[in-house]
Specification:
- The protein is of the alpha/beta class.
- Helices cover about 45% and strands about 20% of the residues.
- It has a single domain, classed as 3-Layer(aba) Sandwich (Rossmann fold).
- Strand 3, helix 3 and strand 4 form a beta-alpha-beta unit.
- The relative contact order is 0.19.
- The chain has five helices and five strands.
- It has a five-stranded parallel beta sheet with strand order 2-1-3-4-5, sandwiched between helices.
């Protein structure tokens, strides 16, 4: 079974995304900040990362760029999820290395379909 790391500082959004992915057949690891995400990635190598843009400390854009630059995490697909859903936000997310960019509120079917496509379950 594939593992998804969900990084979101909103408990409600994290629960919605986590439950959705669990129902889609994924193990889910949760982190509420960039620092916590880095620690969880070291301990458990996820198959995919679902990353919020607005986070305490470092933004999801910064984390995405860092994950894609590191040899150990560069091959992990990243789905960015954010209320920031303008064309420029989506462009910037892709520019940082995101494999997909979904707007909140999340369309749960689209999320599961996107994640499965990227993980190739």
């Amino acid at each position: 079974m594939s593992t998804a790391l969900v990084v979101d500082d909103s408990l409600t959004d994290m629960e919605v995304v986590s439950r959705c992915l669990q129902q889609g057949g994924f193990n889910v690891i949760k982190a509420s900040s960039g620092e916590e995400a880095l620690a969880k990635i070291s301990a458990h190598k996820p198959d995919i990362i679902v990353l919020d843009v607005v986070l305490p400390g470092r933004s999801g854009f910064e984390l995405c760029r860092d994950f894609k630059a590191e040899a150990g995490t560069s091959s992990i697909p990243i789905v960015m999820c954010s209320t920031k859903d303008g064309e420029m936000d989506k462009f910037w997310g892709k520019k940082q290395g995101a494999d997909a960019y979904l707007a909140k509120p999340i369309d749960q079917e689209e999320l599961v379909r996107t994640v499965k496509q990227l993980v190739k379950n």
